[in-house]
Design a protein that fits this description.
The structure is a single chain. The protein is an alpha+beta fold. It has two domains: 10-137, NADH Oxidase (3-Layer(aba) Sandwich); 152-316, 3-Layer(aba) Sandwich (NADH Oxidase), CATH 3.40.109. Helix content is 41%, strand content 16%. The protein is built from eleven helices and eight strands. The strands form two sheets. A four-stranded antiparallel sheet has the order 1-2-4-3, covered by helices on one side. It has a four-stranded antiparallel sheet with strand order 5-6-8-7, sandwiched between helices. The longest helix has 21 residues, at 258-278. It binds flavin mononucleotide. Flavin mononucleotide (FMN) binds at residues 39-43, 75, 78-79, 82, 139-140, 142, 211, 283-287, 311, 325.
Length: 335
């Protein structure tokens, strides 16, 4: 397989590098260069891929699982779902049809999905072509958002990206719900940052430079997070950013299983990309789902009974973040 120049980051992907004359596996491998640009919790990139002649197995990499923050592996599967969605969008862009089987081998605990690809496929109506362009410009935006409301037509457009059966997207600008979510965020920060194992885990991933800071700053941030309880400062910051957002959103599922979590990841990534095109920023807020007592409270804020909250985030307008967070090179995630 082609070796990549370490000075060229995975974000500098060029669609004209697609190996049109290459072997089928080479072409499918190229699609994965879009999959690895997906968001993931703490930027752990907890995915691996096995490429065949006409299919790709999408696997979870449990060596990169956040055992403390994500004990039930919900975020692990959502992250992998985000990568799967980028893969399918890229496949459609390059003319493939596809068929996805979720958890196709129950005994294989690593295998989240198998995507089969056929040439000359029809693009899906809910994956508009522009989503492909947005893959390499999407970013998580943690800034304070402007007061500007999001037009109803744009919210409807985002809503229409959620087509998976049994998966629900709720978006709200209700100030009372925002206040309740804010209370939960403050509580969540207090609980998590008083736990040294949580701080150590977060510190480890920050220290890897994966959240986008230069090496020295990452190491200093790792020490601060690991050894100081910064919950008050963090809660104040998180409260400010949450309250600034014109819209809060929750993705939930009728069934609380791995397949739903992968699908939630797919919808989340689709929403992120559609939002990117509209100039709307997105920022996940996971702490309220990482603590079981708070998760129960979150489900009470969702206007549909009998669903399981899977992912929460805010939407709004802000200046772009400075740069992209780093990604591992493709050859590191191929098995
Ligand atoms: C399942 C999931 C949970 C996340 N939770 C949070 C979170 O609680 N707080 C946060 O600031 N970012 C969160 N993120 C965003 C990631 O930190 C971000 O995707 C990663 O650092 C890569 O950066 P990028 O999205 O700008 O490419 C989450 C992302 C995913 C997919």
């Amino acid at each position: 397989m082609k070796k990549y120049d370490p000075m060229v980051t995975p974000w500098q992907i060029k669609e004209y590098d697609f190996p049109r004359e290459g072997a089928p596996t080479e072409k499918l491998q190229f699609l994965l260069r879009y999959a690895i640009l997906a968001p993931s919790s703490h930027n752990t990139q907890p995915w691996k891929f096995s490429v065949g002649e006409d299919e790709i197995q999408v696997l979870v990499d449990r060596t990169r699982w956040l055992k403390v923050a994500d004990p039930d592996q919900r975020e692990l599967y959502i992250s992998v779902g985000c990568a799967l969605e980028n893969l399918l969008i890229a496949a459609e862009h390059f003319g493939y049809g596809h068929q996805v089987a979720y958890l196709p081998e129950p005994a294989n605990e690593e295998l989240a999905a198998t995507a089969k690809f056929m040439p000359h496929g029809e693009p899906s109506p809910f994956r508009e072509p522009a989503l492909f362009e947005a893959i390499s410009s999407r970013q998580t935006n943690r800034k304070i958002y402007e007061e500007r409301p999001i037009p109803q037509s744009d919210l409807q457009h985002l809503q229409n990206r959620c087509v998976e059966e049994g998966i629900w997207l709720h978006m709200t600008d209700d100030i009372e719900i925002k206040r309740k979510a804010d209370e939960l965020i403050i509580l969540g920060d207090a609980i998590q940052f008083s736990d040294p194992t949580f701080r150590e885990e977060l510190g480890y991933w920050i220290g890897q430079g994966l959240l986008g800071s230069p090496w020295l700053m990452s190491k200093m941030a790792q020490l601060t997070v690991t050894y100081k309880n910064i919950s008050k400062g963090q809660a104040k910051k998180d409260s400010e950013v949450l309250m600034s957002a014109p819209v809060l959103a929750a993705l939930s599922s009728e069934v609380n299983n791995r397949e739903s979590q992968v699908k939630v990841g797919q919808v989340f990534e689709r929403v992120c990309l559609a939002a990117t095109i509209l100039g709307i920023r997105v920022h996940p807020l996971s702490q309220i789902l990482e603590i079981p007592e708070l998760k129960v409270e979150v489900s009470k804020l969702i206007p549909k009974s009998d669903v399981f909250p899977q992912h929460t985030f805010r939407l709004g307008y802000a200046e772009q973040e400075k740069g992209h967070t780093p990604r591992r090179q493709l050859d590191e995630v191929l098995v």
